[in-house]
Amino acid sequence: LTGAEDIPVAAGDTVYVGPGVYREKLTVDVSGAAGTPIIYIGDVTGCYTDGIGGLVRWTGSADDIALTRDHCIEATSKNYRSFRGFMLDMCSSHVLHITTGALFWTIQDCWVACGLLDGLYLTCVAADVPGHEIERCWFWGAYNLNYGIRFSGATQKTDNEVRNCVFMGDPYCGVGVLGAGGTDISDCYFQMDTLYSVRATSLPAGYTAATAKNCVLVGGTSFYAATLGFLLEDHNSINSAAGLNVAAGANSDTAMPLFEMPALEPGYVLPWRPLGATVGHATSAVARALFGTMDIYGVTRTATAAKNSRGPTAHRFIARDVTTVRTVGGASLKLPDCGRHQMWIPITAVSTTITVYVYREANYAGTNPQMIIKQPGQADLTITDAGPAGTWNALTHTWVPAAVPTYVVVELVSGNTAVAGNYAVYFDDLGVT
Amino acid sequence: MPGPYYVGPGGNDANAGTSWAARKLTLNGAENIPVVAGDTVYVGPGVYREMLTCDVAGAAGSPISYIGDVTGRRTDGVGGVVRVTGSNDDIAFTRAHCVECAAAGGKHYRLFQGFSFDRSQFAELEAQFGDPTNWIIRDCTFTAMAGQAAGHGVYIVSAAASGHLIERCVFGSAYNGGIYLGGSHINSGDVIRNCLFVGLTLSAIGSASHGGVSITNCTFVACGDGVRVSLALPVNFIAVIVENSLFWSCQYGLRSTTLTHLVENYNALFGNSTNRTNVAVGAQSNAYPALLAPPLQSPGYAMPWHLGDLSQWSLLRQITGSANAAVDDLYGRTRPVTAAKKSWGAVQWQPVSRDAVTVHTVGGASVKLADAGRHAIWVPTSGILPMTFSVYVYREANYAGTNPSLVVKQPGQADQVVVDAGAAGGWNPLTLNVTPVALPGYLVVELVSENTAVAGNYAAYFDDLVIT
After folding, report:
1. A293: left (phi > 0), else alpha (psi -120 to 50), else beta?
2. How far is residue A252's CA from residue A264's CA, in Å, rounded to a whole number?
3. To the nearest whole number, what is the mean pLDDT of chain B?
4. What is the pLDDT of residues A26-38, one digit of tens each?
5. What is the side-by-side order of every strand in the sheet holding A111-115?
């Protein structure tokens, strides 16, 4: 990584980092520019690098036991930098450390764990400028009395955004807003962040409040502000001990999330995505003020606000059905409401046809059901049901996939917006030739 | 009327319950038949909004078993989560428990497997009245417990040797504790193994004066306490033992009121606010980070991932544990025969990666098992049509132990196995002809390395899996 940085990279450059383990500290020497950031991408699919894919780990440890280096990434006043797709761990200080006034950093799709101090430490000193964006990241166990993410500075309005992140077991706080006004936090999940899930202090006069919306909090303590007004919360589900100096949001509730749990069967590993909401849980379909368009698993949220869940999307609305089937004696996939079901299908770079039949019930509304074929690095291929409701209609597409990665994701989509009547969607007889 | 009995949505408690077609509607409907020692009750996928009161005792060797049929093989043919909830609306805590023991007491030898419990006012599964003994709770999940003092997943109180077994369970996302063991007790004989505890505000496992508990191969992440002995054990106590377990990001890892009441060894504690309180450091314990494997995050793709897997870099994947290591893991996978290759914690490490160097077909990639482990692939079936599975395997020169194998598994059926009989250093075919049964509508193909060698080159590669 340092070798790439020292080329040197310039604004607009992209660095693809292949799967493997990188035991180094990257000192960021160069700034990107507005519209042309410098982007480091951990190529987990192998699409741009080794053709195989896997974890792209970046560690502060030399031996996977000791915390050898202080940071994985360190910067001073460097702007417009983006990091995506990395497993970051085991630093003796902050995993990412921006010591002075860097602007416009983007951290996406990263796993941040085992820092002795904070996970991400970002300073914000410039006044009234858009700030950092952190999304679809996991934060595990910031050690000792520290934060998953700490925004530091004395800034009235940063426009920092944190969304679709999971904070698990940070003994101090999930997100710290220490003098960084205008930081917005949405669609995050906080579990056992012992002291506070979000903590706001030291905002300068004339500040814009930090906000926390559409989040799910379980355990630990909820929200803290040094002064009433520093932190505004609403549309959250809070199952934590009471915080301090944060007024209860009018649309917040205490509905305990009912997360999808694995279906355990002796001797079999049944697929399971932790923290996905179940169909029935109370926060899986609540109207919300603002929300990320994609959840932590990369699943696009539904178009209807009232059908969006807080935290990770309740996209697992999937059931097998033996009543509405195209082939008698078989079973179909049922989407009782809007949602997406993804399937991995291995392919080679030869002409390929994928077909599936879809049936939507009479009261279905919104964009008709779709089959979307996705291959990392390629544009999505979308086929939308053009047939009538109440019948089985074919969705089909023929094309030549790219050679790598050697799979596509077929997404079966219900975009239903109706809230009354019969609006389920069924898919059956998927064929790949 | 002899069992087994069946319960499921669309049933009726006026039915006999002796077949899926004549199924009962409720768990209590089955209980009130009444069940007798040795009976099995298969519970179909669905949601059960009731509190099962256990009125009957099983007997040694013939427990009364309630099986949540998540594969659907014995019930609806479809499968899914079998949920028992204490809530009527998925918000409020409506009932006291999901399962309780009748006040009359003495309801011994009960078994619960495959259920997802949630949302009761107090403990979701309560075994308290009359000192019930010898309960088995396996492959169950407990979540959304109430924020009350007794709002645990499992709440056990006994005054006599209780002999309960809790294994392969997940306790998660709750504003309270996981397992509470109460009752002043010298030696309970209770065993807890292969359980995953995530995000429990209070104690994941709490013993209040409850001695003789063995806790092995559990993983504790982001809990108030991992294991806590909150009340001193009685005179002549047998200590609570904790081995082969992982503690990460808990407020307290291991915590006891009195030194020697909680004895630990072969554990890894890292990143906890306090690793131990009144607990001596086990000679073979360490402070290695768990280094759990993260999901492969890529925009727009939800890649399969199991919480609790160790990453390939975790040094806990290949160190010698205690003799008490469980033989399987949370996900039901058999641990390797070599002690030094058994992962600590609830989830056995699977050393699987793709490889583009050692391949059977040039230009492709193989599945590499860097060491002993198993790679499972789901394959849908079409009724009972015969299927042929063939794959090529290559083992390196220093591989030792039982040769690599191809295993085809179907829930409810005997495993079919073919073991590599060819030479090391070459690609050898493995072929199995299998006639599946109709349900469930899938098979699991397992590619297995049982390597025991610890030095040299001992990886196994699989390539060109063909299913016809």
Report:
1. alpha
2. 33
3. 90
4. 999 999 999 999 9
5. A20-22, A56-59, A87-91, A111-115, A138-140, A166-168, A189-191, A216-221, A237-241
Tokens 């001992």, residue located: B458
> Cα torsion at A325, A331, A336, A337 (round to 10°)?
-80
Look at residue A280 and tell me whether its pLDDT is greater than 50.
Answer: no
For residues A291 and B384, the model is more confident at: B384
Q: With b meaning 16 or more CB within 10 Å and e meaning fewer, what string describes A172-193?
A: bbbbbbbbbbbbbbbbbbbbbb
- Using the predicted structure, report yes or no on whether residue A387 has a pLDDT greater than 80: yes
pLDDT on residue B113: 96
CB atoms within 10 A of CB A319: 19
Using a CB-CB distance cutoff of 8 angstroms, which residues of chain B are in contact with residue A270?
Answer: 70
A212 touching chain B per CB within 8 A: no
DSSP string, A368-392: PPEEEEE-TTS--EEEE--S-TTS-
- What would the two tokens of residue A345 be? 């299908």
Q: What is the pLDDT of residue B442?
A: 84
Alpha-carbon gap, residue A53 to B355, rounded angstroms = 10
pLDDT of B389 strictly over 90: yes
Q: Which tokens hold the place of B234? A: 């009685």
Whether the pLDDT of residue A289 is over 80: the answer is no
DSSP string covering B236-287, please? TPPPEEEES-EEES-SEEEEESSTTSEEEES-EEES-SEEEES-PPPTT-B-
Torsion angle in degrees (nearest 10) through CA of A95, A101, A104, A108: 10
Residue A373 tokens, joined? 């074929």
Residue A2 phi/psi, 5-degree rounding, is: -65, -35
Provide the Cα torsion A224, A227, A228, A233; round to 10°.
-40
Q: Which is nearest to A28 in space by CA: A84, A75, A79?
A: A75
CA Rg value for chain B: 23
Q: Helix count (H) and strand count (E) of chain A?
A: 1, 35
Q: Which residues of A touch B249 (CB under 8 A)?
A: 140-141, 168-171, 192
Check residue B353 and give its pLDDT.
85
Rounded Cα distance between A128 and A157, Å, is 5
Please, which pLDDT band fits residue B102 given cuts at 50, 70 and 90?
confident
pLDDT surpasses 80 at B52: yes
Q: Which of B131, B139, B122 is nearest to B101 (CA)?
A: B131
Are the Cβ atoms of B119 and A266 closer than 8 angstroms? Answer: no
B139·A266 Cβ contact <8 A = yes
Task: Show residues of chain A in contact with B167, CB under 8 Å.
Answer: none
